[in-house]
Amino acid sequence: MTTAKICGLRAPDTLDAAISGGASHVGFVFFASSPRHLSFDAAAGLAARVPGHVGRVGVFVDPADDLLEPAIGAGRLDVLQLHKTAPERIAAIRARYRLPVWAAVAVKARADLDAARPLAGLVDRILYDAKTPEGATLPGGMGVRFDWGLLEGIAHPAPWALSGGLDAGNVAEAIHGTGAEIVDVSSGVESAPGVKDPAKIRAFLKAVSAA
Ligand SMILES: O=C(O)c1ccccc1N[C@@H]1O[C@H](COP(=O)(O)O)[C@@H](O)[C@H]1O
Description:
The chain is an alpha/beta fold. It has helices spanning 12-20, 40-47, 65-74, 87-97, 171-178, 198-210, and strands at 3-6, 25-29, 55-61, 79-83, 101-107, 125-130, 160-163, 182-185, 190-192, 195-196. It has a single domain (3-210), classed as Aldolase class I (TIM Barrel). The chain contains six helices and ten strands. The strands form two sheets. The chain has an eight-stranded parallel barrel with strand order 1-2-3-4-5-6-7-8, surrounded by five helices. A two-stranded antiparallel sheet has the order 9-10. The ligand O=C(O)c1ccccc1N[C@@H]1O[C@H](COP(=O)(O)O)[C@@H](O)[C@H]1O binds at residues 7-8, 27, 29, 31, 34, 36, 59, 61, 83, 127, 129, 138-144, 163-166, 184-188.
């Protein structure tokens, strides 16, 4: 059965919609350039509402320890999702914080999948995410989709999840086409950048459970 992570939550009502709708994971973004960025105080308030069966995922872009340490505490993080982070740094973060690590692999063309190979044994999950346009301020969360057919027949070096441009209208096709264990969405359940929509969250989670 495929489960879902709802990422970039910033408000109690939308967090509650994700939890009551059956999300397996919720994502808190710690990246100042993102419209979904959370302060430590805001993260602490949200984290306290999350029941034990739902994973709290912290989303970071090549983070330094002076961000990771307080974010892990405030967000009571269960998982660290790392974007644009080199394999050596991923290994150091995993060893230091002893938390499961999901590493994003940005995909546009088949050659991009080569970046997953060095992650074998280093990460707990690979997140195949769409590559955002050259010069974009965000490495994710822009509703960009990649050709899911690129994943066909590849040997995955670790368990994996799928993200990039998913929404309630295409997630069933994504699940059937790729066999993803976990699907991850951010902008596809928003009414504006950084503003989650409870009805879209519910529709997305309904589509995942029906797929
Ligand atoms: O959402 C963000 O602002 C963000 C910032 C920095 C790194 C990753 C971010 N989001 C991740 O992007 C993917 C896909 O998002 P979308 O559904 O295409 O909008 C997802 O994994 C988010 O965790």
